[in-house]
Amino acid sequence: MSRAFVRETDGEELDDGAPDRPVSPHPNYVTPAGLAQLQARVAELTAERQRLLGDESVGAKQQLRRVERELRYYDERVVSAIPVDPAARSGDRVHFGATVEVEDEAGNVQRYSIVGEDEADAAHGKISWVSPLARALLNAEAGDTVTWKRPAGDKELHILAIHPYR
User: Fold this and answer.
1) What's the CA angle centered on 123, arms 89 and 105, to 5 degrees?
2) d(CA 151, CA 46)
3) CA 46, CA 28: separation in Å to the nearest integer?
4) What one-character-per-residue DSSP string does 45-94 give?
5) What percent of the residues of the chain are helix, what percent strand, and what percent coil, each to the nearest 5?
6) Hey, is 124 helix, strand or coil?
7) CB 31 within 8 A of CB 84
8) Helix 32-53 and helix 58-79: axis angle, to 10°?
9) CA terminus-to-terminus distance, the chain
10) Which among 102, 99, 101 is positioned nearest to 115, based on CA atoms?
């Protein structure tokens, strides 16, 4: 078959097939640091988009589609953000933005900061306010014992202290 009758792609038709990132149905509460992170990510993606716009290569066009998809997500998250200043809340109960020190039945002490969904980073002790752990902790006071319902089994946590968000 002659190559004259085979349509070759110029990159315009290529699509990575990835759908837009789903946006959470929950209110988008953010700490001041979380809002700054979202805004910084929008700025990074906007700069990357500008850089890619002039590149006509197939790889750049694919990357541009990925960047634009991410930019749509983060733009939406910034627009829907509901800033919450944790410092404006009293420290007598666990609330959004608080850092909570807890002890489990084995005597292990952990610290968790309750933050917005986009700011959550379990490896650094930042948990989303909609997570099962945060839901167990919210509105409790120092000295309370709460039950964290987990797939691996319930876990009792004793609240040692509530600190302002850091």
Assistant:
1) 75
2) 40
3) 22
4) HHHHHHHHHT--SHHHHHHHHHHHHHHHHHHHHHHTEEE--GGGS-SSB-
5) 35, 25, 40
6) helix
7) yes
8) 150
9) 67
10) 99
- Say what the pTM is: 0.79
Q: Tell me the one-letter amino acid at 41.
A: R
Reading the block at residue 92, the tokens are: 């007598």
pLDDT in tens, 76-121: 999 999 999 887 777 789 999 999 999 999 999 999 999 999 999 9
Report yes or no: 45 and 37 within 8 Å, Cβ to Cβ: no
User: Residue 160 corresponds to which amino acid?
Assistant: L
Q: What is the pLDDT of residue 164?
A: 81
Please give the Cα distance from 164 to 31 (Å, whole number): 12
The position carrying tokens 């983060």 is 74
Containing 99, the helix (H) or strand (E) segment is strand 99-104
Report DSSP state, residue 8: P
51 vs 38: CA distance, rounded Å = 20
Looking at residues 119-138, what average pLDDT do you find?
Answer: 95
- Report yes or no: 76 and 88 within 8 Å, Cβ to Cβ: no
